[in-house]
Amino acid sequence: MRKAVVLIGLALSVTPGFGQAKDQSHEICQPHGGRCQTIKPPNLPPAPANWKMPRTHDGKPDFKSDIAPIKDATISLYNALIAPVQAEVDTADTLLIVPAGELYYLPIHALGRATPDGSLSFLIEQKRFAYLASADLLNAIASVRIVANNHGTTHPLLALGNPDGSLPAASEEVSTLGRLFINANIITGKDATVSRVAQSAGGTTYIHFATHGMINSLEPKESYLLLAGDPGRLSVKDIVEDNFKLSFNGTRIVTLSACETNIGGFDPSAVYSSLSRAFTKAGAPTVVASLWSVNDTSTKETMTNFYKEIVAGQSKAEAMRRAQLAVMHDQRFAHPYYWAPFIVLGDWK
Q1: Which has fewest Cβ within 10 Å: 87, 154, 248, 292?
Q2: CA separation, residue 36 to residues 3, 8, 25, 184, 196 (Å)
Q3: Which residues, 6 or more positions from 313, have their beta carbon under 8 angstroms from its beta carbon?
Q4: Do 317 and 129 meet the contact criterion of CB atoms below 8 Å apart?
Q5: Are 6 and 95 in contact, with CB atoms under 8 Å apart?
Q6: pLDDT-based confidence at residue 315 (cuts at 50, 70, 90)
Q7: What would the pLDDT profile of 4-30 be if each residue is shown by its tens digit?
């Protein structure tokens, strides 16, 4: 029987000091009352080379222009993490991934299987994806969605871009998004300050930051989004502790179009672990965030396509799937480095 949504919990244990997986398990269930099942597949293969490379203008073509160097690792990870639950995956249209530990930083949607012609078929080509820090968030997502839908909005979009002038595509990105929404509030350059965010966020449906993300893995609460003016940054600590009294009442999505905004400390589930977790704690029902340092131009293309699909009425998960496929099919951006960094966290509908 086909299921609209299947939740998959992924966990592994790690040998201290070596970062090698000893064991991993899956918990599978249908949200809203489905049966849960735990499966233990074979051990993970050795970890692939680090995919991570601030938001950049270009990349190193030696490994970003060709998928071949990651093909074996991609297939091995697929076989370890997805193949053991393939029967459940095949029944689903949308996969909710609840990763633990280091798996929180792995783009499950970019894993794939080899096709008869030797190419890779990525999961995102067949399935919608969303990621959750905990399965317990399902009930919270439902309640937040209901509350958000009961409030009107002052502006449909608040988009801040290129506060330091170093990201020209970020300025183009927010300007393009502004043309998709009536009464959009577009703020760029030296005007993209924390105070403008605090003044404008309340009652806004979509809040979009196109800037640099600065990550501090040793002190995750000090990770921040770069903005203009004084203080010139919006940190994890500021968001969680509500230092600037930001309101996400009525907000549907907060998009962090910057580098590594889903990356944080050694405990990815901790409230202070990342910028994405901080915005979730502050009340954003859905956060779009990145898993590594992103390319300026491909990010602009991803975000433009994502919001076009949102405006057209697609769900958040389907909008991201279509946006990533559109970027993937551009020959310049065929490598997952370009199309796969952004994930939908939280409410996927």
Answers
A1: 87
A2: 14, 9, 13, 43, 46
A3: none
A4: yes
A5: yes
A6: very high
A7: 888 898 886 543 333 344 445 555 555
**pLDDT digits 0-9 by tens, 239-260:** 999 999 999 999 999 999 999 9
Q: Strand 253-257 relative to strand 112-114: parallel, antiparallel, unpaired?
A: unpaired
Longest alpha-carbon distance in the chain: 56
Q: Name the phi and psi angles at 26, rounded to 5.
A: -120, 140
The string of pLDDT tens digits covering residues 43-86 is: 444 444 433 334 554 444 444 456 777 899 999 999 999 999 99
Classify residue 149 by burial, with Cβ atoms within 10 Å: 0-12, 13-18, 19+. Answer: exposed
List the CATH code of the domain at 137-346.
3.40.50.1460
Q: Are 158 and 205 in contact (CB under 8 A)?
A: no
Report pTM: 0.85
**Token pair of 9 as six digits:** 């919990």
C-alpha 230/C-alpha 309 separation (Å) is 35
- SS3 readout for the chain: CCEEEEEEEEEEEECCCCCCEEEEEEEEECCCCCCCEEECCCCCCCCCCCCCCCCECCCCHHHHCCCHHHHHHHHHHHHHHCHHHHHHHHCEEEEEEEECHHHHHCCHHHCEEECCCCCEEEHHHCCEEEECCCCCHHHHHHHHHHHHHCCCCCEEEEEEECCCCCCHHHHHHHHHHHCCCCCCEEEEHHHCEHHHHHHHCCCEEEEEEECCEECCCCCHHHCEEECECCCCEEEHHHHHCCCCCCCCCCCCEEEEECCCCCCCCCCCCCCCCCHHHHHHHCCCCEEEEECCCCEHHHHHHHHHHHHHHHHCCCCHHHHHHHHHHHHHCCHHHCCHHHHCCEEEEECCC
Q: Where are the domains of the chain?
A: 3-131, 137-346
Among 209, 205, 208, which Cα is nearest to 225's?
209
